[in-house]
Amino acid sequence: MGSYFWNVEGPQADGLACVVCGADFVKRKITSVVVGRNPEDESSVRACKAPCAAALAADADRMAREMWNAVGLDDAEAPDGDVFGVDGHFGSLLRDLKTLAGTEALLTTSHDMVTIRFLLSLTARHAETAMMRARLVLAQAKDVDGADGGD
d(Cα 66, Cα 64) in Å, to the nearest integer? Predict the structure, then answer.
């Protein structure tokens, strides 16, 4: 997810609470989904799958329609992005992989427990987003060329 959620802090900024309603995902068993990023550290922020994420999706869809109408296009005329462009999921995937490679190098040389915990937290966040982005890019690539992928 490329959308930034500004002014989030505490558990919401760490992805441990809903960015819409504030529900605590640690204390309550609530299904959550990644809905964006915290601009401070690029970590994932989450929302309750229902109804909060659905409300965010509906709002994003409404705003996108308004923007297409403002430029004189409807949804059917919206340009398709380049699957392997650096501005889309593929570019973000490459940045996540670079971050993972860097944290791996730092973990092999770090001895301070505070630094190690931070690096492990960074690794978990980027590994999760890299997995989701890789799946998105794979699905987009299948749609473009009609390949079955063999997986």
Answer: 5
Which tens digits make up the pLDDT trace of 109-119? 888 898 888 88
56 is written with which tokens? 């965010």
Give CA torsion, residues 51, 16, 119, 91, to 10 deg.
10
Q: 96: part of which helix (H) or strand (E)?
A: helix 89-109
Nearest C-alpha neighbor of 34 from the set 59, 52, 15: 15
Asked whether 123 and 100 are in contact (CB, 8 A), the reply is yes
Rounded to whole angstroms, how far apart are CA atoms 110 and 62? 47
Q: Is the pTM of this model over 0.85?
A: no
| Cα–Cα dist 47/25, whole Å | 9
